[in-house]
Structures are given as C-alpha cells and as structure tokens.
From TrEMBL, chain A:
Lineage: Bacteria, Bacillati, Actinomycetota, Actinomycetes, Pseudonocardiales
Localization terms from the record: Cell membrane
InterPro entries recorded: ABC_transp_permease (IPR001851), BCAA_transport_permease (IPR052157)
Organism superkingdom: Bacteria
Cellular component aspect of the GO annotation: plasma membrane
Keywords: Amino-acid transport, Cell membrane, Membrane, Transmembrane, Transmembrane helix, Transport
Stated name of the protein: Branched-chain amino acid ABC transporter permease
Pfam families xrefs: BPD_transp_2
Family the UniProt entry places it in: Belongs to the binding-protein-dependent transport system permease family. LivHM subfamily.
Length: 292, 376
C-alpha cells in the first residue's frame, strides 16, 4: 500500500513534467503541423544556460529566468530562420529537418559545455515530507513542479482565450489564408507560437534537471515520453496533452516500480502503439476522418 | 559503386532494354537487362573491393568493414524512406536486434558457420520488422516518426533488463570465428599473403553489401519498386490501381529491417561486442542523415552516406584537435557537420548528392524529387 502510494505520487510529479513537454509539442503542432523532435535538445540547451549561470554564482531563480528567456529567443530564431523555409506539403521533410536540428544542437552542446555529467541544483528540498513516522514521496521540488506546470497551463489558457494575440494565434493555426486576409501577421504568430512552445519546453527541461544530472542527452528519453503523452491526448488538444502526460507518468511509474525501470521506454512504446492502433486521434478525439 | 543504375527512374521512363550502352555483342549481352547490368556491376564492385582491401592495412580494412555495414543499413533505409515514403528513426533498434542475435549465436564452443549466423541475424530482424511494420503501415509522417523513435529508445533497455542473458550494460563480447581455410588458401593463391581477421571481415562485409544491393536494386527496378513508388506518390491513385497499400508498406518495412539486421550482425563482428551503448538514438539519427545526404531513394547515395559516416569522424576529429579542442569535444564536430548538412540538404536540395549528380547527367525535368509528396 505504502509502495503503491509512493509510486503514484512519483508518477504524478513525472506526469506533470511530461505534460509540460507534451504541451510544447502540441503548441507547435497546432501552429505549424510539425512535430518538433528538436524540442528535447532545445530544452537541454536552455537548461545548460541556467546551469552555467548558477555555477557562476548567481541565484537559482536568475538561472531559471534566463533559461526560460533563452528558450523564448531560441524558439523564435528556430522558427524564423529554419522552419520557415521547409516545404510544408511534404510529410517527411519537416521531420528530417527537426531531426537534423536535433543532431546539431546535441553536438553543439557537447562541444560548448562538454559531455560529462554535471549536477543541477534544486530550489526546494528533495526529501519527502514527514507525516508521523513515514516519509511520503512528495518533495518540495515535486510540489513546485506540479504548481509551475499548472500555472503554465492556466497562463496559456488565459492567453489563448482572453487576449487579442491569443485570438490571432488561434486564427492563424485554424486557417493561415483566411487569417492573412483578415489582417493577421501570420508569420509573426507562428514565430510567437514556436517561442512560447520553447519556453514551455525549457520549463520541462529545468524541472527534469532539478536535483539530477545534466548532460547533452539527458532529455532524449523525454522527447519520446512527451510525444507519447501528446499523442495520447490527441496532438491537437492542449488539455489532452496534460491529461496524456498525467496518464503516462502514472503508468510508467507503475511499470518502473513493479516491473523494472529499464523497461519504462518499452512500456511507453507499447502504450503508444496501442493508442495509435485503437484510437489514432488520441483518447479524447472526436471521430474525424483522417486526411489522406 | 555496386549499382550505377538509377533506382529513381520511374516506370514510364525506363531505358529501352535493347539499347546498346557499350559497343559490341558482349556489351549488348551483358547490359541487356537490369538484372545482368546489376550482376556485372556487382562483379566489378567485388574486384574493386578486393583491390582496396588488399592494398590497405588492418586499420583501413576495419574502416572499410564499418563502411560496409553502414552501407547495408543505409541501403535498406533509403529504400524505405526514398521509395516508399515511410520514415523510420528506429533502424538502430533493428541493428541492435541483429547484433545481439549474432553475438548469442557465436557464444558456444562450436559456433555455427558465419553465413548461418548472419542469415539468422537478418531473419530475426525480419521477424521484428514484420511485427513493427504491420503497426507502422497504418501510421503517417510524424506519427510513424514518433513511434519508431520510441522503438529506438526502447530496445536498448531490453538487454539492461535481461542482463543475465544479454549481458546488461557491458554487453556481449563477440568471438570472431577463425578465417576458413579455403578462403585463406584462395587469398594466398592470388596475393601471396595470409588474410588477417579484419581483412576477412572486410571481405565478408562487402560481399554482403554487394549481394544486398543487387537484391535491393532489382527489387527497386521491378514491379515491387514501382508499387512502392506509386504508394509514396499518391495513395488514392495507387489503391485505385489495385495496389494493396498495407501490403506494400509492410513489405518495404520488412525488407528495410532485414537489411538493418544483417548490418547489425556485421557490426557485432567488426566491433567484437554487442552492447546497448552501441545502439543509441544517435545511431538511428545518423543513419537517417546519411541517406538524406546521399539522396533519398538512391543506393549509390546510401553508399556515399555510409562513406561519410565512416571516414568523416576521423577527419573532423583531427581537424578539431588541430584547432586546439580536446578529444571529446573534437569528436562532436562530425555529428555537427552531419546535422548542419542534413538541414541544408532538406531545405535547399531535397534530392541529396545523388540527385545533384543525376541532374548534371540528365535534363532537369526528368529527375523526380524522391521525398514523399503527399497532400496534407
């Protein structure tokens, strides 16, 4: 019972991180119909920015803010100078392009920051809270993780629902041609979409790194889990992404606790295949015909 | 090198079979059909390989063996991506399956002959490819990419979990079988030297590569290849023409995975080890970048890509050291170059190096862009 409780709490925290990453993928998918496989190394790079600042003696929060800001800039630059030029009619070219970016950022990080493991600090305690005699698996950092992802979700909902910019972004995601005719600067909205997504991705990078080790491929698994989470919820739905992240986090945590931690990624693969074969549009999709 | 024939030539523009490419009766006979052309090229390639292997030292022999297995894997992948329009980021996983199969079969006191081991490596990958292919046939673009990405990340976890049988993090060491006597005699008869093990592996690797490429080239030129291209270019039209989309897709995936399995078996022999760290996500991604650089769908392009994967790292690392970088950092220059060039190729020249060469040989209008052209 105790172990189940612990496993579920760990899963909840992990799930929140996957949800953030899936959210970043969904934001980009909605805006440009591209799955950004380079999201993981982008987040890795911004985490290194934070790490360098923190190791130079600045506070954790300064590093945190700098990472998010550099995510914003990086996302905008990537969209404006790379993604903008890919042929959108091809299904394969954007995928290969983001994977090329994946390799580049990976190599760049190893070149600049070195390939060794470096520990990343956490702003809150990493020990579970004491309740009576037992320690529960919820840490201070875990609570921070959950709250910050929830805050991001709320902020995004507010942005898309209640602001002019949000409306313009939704319009350009819905139909670029019509949005352009109505005077929306679609290009800018796409850049902004990528930038926001990269900020959310950077947040997930910081949350995974907190209290752990950072090296150039520390996010590689997360790109898979984030993708699985996004597909679970249907790539189009931000709420689905959060739900998918939570479901995935809990189920992977159960696999890790009761079967074996090395089989987690295999379990993720199994979940992904099951969802894609049974409900290709995700768990929450309304039935819709597939585009050929 | 092995096949000069353009695998991209679509059905409507195949060269007339009776056209005499080389003067004389013998030439006309040898080049009359694609099969004969491929076989002649295969023999010529084997001769060239022998010369290359005999004239270089053991270190270069090892590199050539590496180029062979990269070439086989890239050849299989380029057929899948370029001709059939499916993408796979999971070919590193199939290579792992082949490598572990070979490693397990070579463990006993009296291992089976090498040919049997390599066929088994390919066969196990074939079975795995069929399993994944059935699922993959229903997926599109980014979904397929994500699923195969998950495969690439998941498979190295299996030996970690079953560390009793599969050796865990350390992996399985592979004992390279002794050079067979008949082979040593034959080489000695021609060159007057005994072949070492790395030279033997070089021969084995390139023999497998030539056989694989002849089979792939014939497959691509024939009915099956036309089916694959039809499915790639327009699903609806292909289905109306009576093509079973699912079957064509699964077949392409299975063929591709089998090549990767064979390549994995050869990799295990060359590296003398099968370990999870050899089959990281980077391997799958680098294979993909190799075929993009060479030109999607082109077998000669796959060979060019394999050569880049084999020889560029050393060049780049030396260059980096000259620039004053440490070893570890200098080793990152090669992937950096692959990644950058991959992005540039996708953005500005989607048909890669092979497409560029083809365009210089033929008029611009006759070189189709090989990447998938689905309507979205």
């Amino acid at each position: 019972m105790q172990q189940l409780f612990t496993t579920l709490l760990t899963g909840l925290t992990l799930g929140m991180v996957y949800a953030a990453f899936a959210l970043a993928l969904v934001l980009i998918w909605r805006a440009t119909r591209i799955v950004n496989f380079a999201q993981a190394p982008m987040a890795m790079l911004t985490t290194y920015v934070a790490l360098v600042l923190i190791e130079a003696g600045y506070s954790y929060w300064l590093g945190f803010a700098a990472a998010l800001l550099s995510g914003l800039v990086l996302g905008a630059l990537v969209e404006r100078f790379v993604i903008r030029y890919v042929d959108p009619r091809s299904e394969i070219n954007p995928v290969i392009l983001t994977l090329g970016l994946f390799i580049v950022l990976h190599a760049l990080a190893a070149l600049v920051f070195g390939a060794r493991y470096r520990s990343f600090p956490a702003p809150f305690g990493l020990r579970g809270f004491q309740v009576g005699d037992t320690t529960i698996a919820l840490t201070g950092f875990g609570i921070f993780t959950i709250l910050s992802v929830l805050a991001v979700v709320v902020l995004l909902v507010l942005l898309f629902r209640y602001t002019d910019v949000g409306l313009k972004m939704r319009a350009s995601a819905f139909n670029q041609e019509v949005a352009r005719l109505l005077g929306v600067r679609v290009g800018r909205m796409l850049t902004l979409g990528w930038a926001l997504a990269a900020v959310v991705g950077s947040l997930s990078g910081l949350l995974i790194a907190g209290g752990g080790l950072v090296h150039p491929s520390f996010m590689d698994g997360v790109v898979v889990y984030g993708f699985v989470a996004a597909v679970l919820g249907g790539l189009d739905s931000p709420v689905g992404a959060v739900a998918g992240g939570l479901i995935l986090g809990l189920s992977l945590s159960l696999v890790s606790g009761y079967v074996g931690s090395q089989l987690v990624s295999l379990a993720a693969l199994a979940i992904l295949m099951a969802v894609l074969l049974v409900r290709p549009g995700g768990l929450f999709a309304r039935v819709r015909e597939r585009r050929v | 090198m092995a096949t000069e024939t353009s695998t991209e030539t679509s059905a409507g523009q195949e060269r007339p079979a009776h056209r005499r490419r080389r003067g004389g009766r013998l030439g006309a006979f040898l080049f009359a059909t694609p099969l004969r052309r491929h076989l002649v090229l295969a023999v010529l390639a084997m001769v060239a390989v022998s010369v290359a292997l005999e004239s270089t030292d053991a270190f270069r022999n090892g590199q050539l063996a590496a180029m062979a297995y990269f070439g086989i894997a890239a050849g299989g992948l380029t057929v899948l991506v370029g001709l059939n329009g499916q993408i796979s980021l999971g070919h590193g996983a199939f290579m792992a399956i082949g490598a572990y199969t070979a490693a397990l079969m070579l463990r006993g006191e009296n291992p089976l002959p090498l040919a049997v081991v390599l066929v088994a490596a390919a066969a196990v990958a074939l079975a795995a490819g069929a399993l994944v292919g059935v699922a993959a046939a229903r997926l599109h673009g980014p979904y397929l990419a994500g699923a195969t990405l998950a495969l690439a990340v998941a498979v190295p976890g299996i030996p970690l979990h079953f560390s009793g049988v599969l050796g865990g993090e350390q992996g399985l060491t592979v004992r390279v079988p002794a050079v067979p006597d008949w082979f040593a005699d034959a080489v000695f008869f021609v060159t007057g030297q005994d072949p070492g093990r790395s030279r033997y592996l070089g021969y084995v690797g390139w023999f497998c590569l030539v056989v694989t490429f002849v089979l792939l080239a014939n497959l691509a030129r024939g009915r099956v290849g036309r089916t694959w291209r039809a499915v790639r270019d327009n699903e609806v039209a292909a289905e109306l023409a009576g093509i079973d989309l699912g079957r064509a897709r699964v077949l392409a995936f299975v063929v591709s995975a089998t090549c990767a399995g064979l390549a994995g078996g050869l990799l295990a022999l060359s590296a003398r080890i099968a370990a999870p760290s050899g089959f990281t996500l980077s391997l799958s991604l680098l294979l993909l970048s190799a075929i993009v650089l060479g030109g999607l769908g082109s077998l000669p392009g796959a060979l060019v890509g394999a050569a880049l994967l084999t020889f560029l790292p050393q060049l780049a690392t030396t260059l980096g050291q000259d620039l004053g970088l440490s070893d570890v950092r200098a080793a990152e220059l090669a992937p950096l170059a692959y990644g950058l060039v991959t992005m540039l190729v996708v953005l500005f020249a989607p048909s890669g190096i092979a497409g560029w060469v083809r365009r210089r040989r033929t008029s611009p209008s006759s070189s189709p862009v090989p990447s998938g052209r689905h309507e979205t």
